[in-house]
Amino acid sequence: MRIAVVALGKIGLPLAVQFADAGHEVIGVDVNPKTVELVNAGTEPFPGEAHLQEKLGELVPAGRLRATTDYADAIPGADAVVLVVPLFVNDETWEPDFAWMDAATTSLAEHLTAGTLVSYETTLPVGTTRGRWKPMLERGSGLTEGVDFHLVFSPERVLTGRVFEDLRKYPKLIGGLSDEGARRAREFYEAVLQFDERADLPRPNGVWDLGSAEAAEMAKLAETTYRDVNIGLANQFALFAANNGIDVYQVIEACNSQPYSHIHRPGIAVGGHCIPVYPRLYLSTDPDADIVRTARVLNASMPERLVAQAQGLLGDLQGVRAVVLGAAYRGGVKETAFSGVFATVDALKQRGAEVRVHDPLYTDEELGRLGFEPYAMGDEADLAILQTDHGDYRELGPADLPGVRLLVDGRNATDAAAWSGTPRIVVGMG
Fold first, then answer.
1. How far apart are CA 24 and CA 14, in angstroms?
2. Would strands 117-120 and 406-409 be described as parallel, antiparallel, or unpaired?
């Protein structure tokens, strides 16, 4: 097949590589000329994705994968077009911002030719594929969906850093606007993906047709919103436990010892492209979902709550030398999307603290570009707040932070024994 992938980001590029590695001709489209240049040179544009560099090094020289900024070069005559353009959410209104996706869809429509399968993999509010993309594609192309081309929704279900592994591990969900579109989508994904055997699933691992685009859209929102709500519940338990001298981690371990409980871990922040965002996409079409809204608000409040707790112990934070440990949203991943570092730094600065940030994955220059004053391990500090559970921080002790008067461990990642004699707060522990 000839396949076009629109947007060569941290999901789109591995997808394009996966399709090419399965033996197909793939053209990637991206608005960033630098990304296109790097891909065509066989060089990964971003670090940290397992096996990406080695696969690019094989597929690009072999002529199986190339990139372009020109939709007219990639879209006409494609058997399938897969779109993975980012969808943003307005921080104030919590409404989806379709600007980038609208622009990509408009460009796609201008060059769409008959016989093409179009699959959106970007997570969407329920009803978007049918109510927004279908009419835009039909108007822009002059073609009729279900007759001249087919449109489906098939959510990505992978984590950056392990995309190729996750593509094999999880069922590929599809939802079409017609039976023929769903059939085409099943044939397409079965031709570009391979699946691990999984005895734990109710049916064989592979391509699962959910019967409609709306069901597939909701499935992606539901599985991610579940995690945010679950973490919100864990954080609620953690706040209560800390106020009552209880170790919430022992409680959670006990609860999860039977199969009907799967309580997640509490923490200072929920970050990344997915979990903080998709509940708000769900709320955009189900505004009465109070449990979803409450969990999102609680999770977003955790940095402020822990900084306030630190202030309660140290007193006035004016002029206090504070270091936030970890800029990344999760350990081992060089990504700051919706990271708790931003809210934590803001909460400290609002109280007059002098704030610096440390992260073993980022250079001082990179931290500076993020708007942070970098901290060098071994410099004087009064207060440390662990925001990211990097492996490097598990051996952290007071000697690494000379003068430290309080550690706030927002991830339960440090060793209590190493901090004997120095005040240490752990989220969820009294």
1. 14
2. unpaired
- CA gap 346, 390 in Å, rounded: 21
SS3 173: strand
Q: Which two tokens stand for residue 419?
A: 């901090």
d(CA 172, CA 364): 40
DSSP 398: G
Distance CA 160, CA 11 (A): 7
List the end-to-end C-alpha distance of the chain, in Å, as a whole number.
59
Longest dimension (CA), the chain: 73
pLDDT band per the 50, 70, 90 thresholds, residue 48: confident
Q: Which amino acid is at 373?
A: E
Task: State the pLDDT at residue 91.
Answer: 82
Residue 304 · residue 370 · CB < 8 Å: no
Distance, CA of 88 to CA of 280 (rounded, Å): 10
Six token digits for residue 147: 């007759």
Q: Enter the tokens of residue 12.
A: 């789109």
For 274, the token pair is: 């997915």
427 burial via Cβ count (<10 Å: 0-12, 13-18, 19+) = buried
Q: How far is CA 3 from CA 34, 63, 82, 224, in A?
A: 22, 13, 8, 28
Q: Which two tokens stand for residue 81?
A: 């077009």
Catalytic machinery residues: 220, 274
**Distance from CA of residue 22 to its chain's centroid?**
25
Distance CA(326)–CA(388), nearest Å, equals: 5
CA–CA separation, 201 vs 221, rounded Å?
20
Half-sphere exposure of 56 (CA within 13 A, CB side): 27
The number of helices, as runs of H, and strands, as runs of E, in the chain is 15, 15
Its sign, for the CA torsion 12, 15, 21, 23, is negative
254: left (phi over 0), alpha (psi -120 to 50) or beta: alpha
* Coil, helix or strand at residue 344: helix
Q: What is the pLDDT at residue 257?
A: 98
Taking each helix axis as running N to C, give the angle between helix 340-350 and helix 290-314, from 0 to 180 degrees, rounded to the nearest 10.
50
Q: What are phi and psi of 383, to 5 degrees?
A: -135, 135
**pLDDT grade, residue 273 (50/70/90)?**
confident
In angstroms, the CA 123 to CA 156 distance is 7
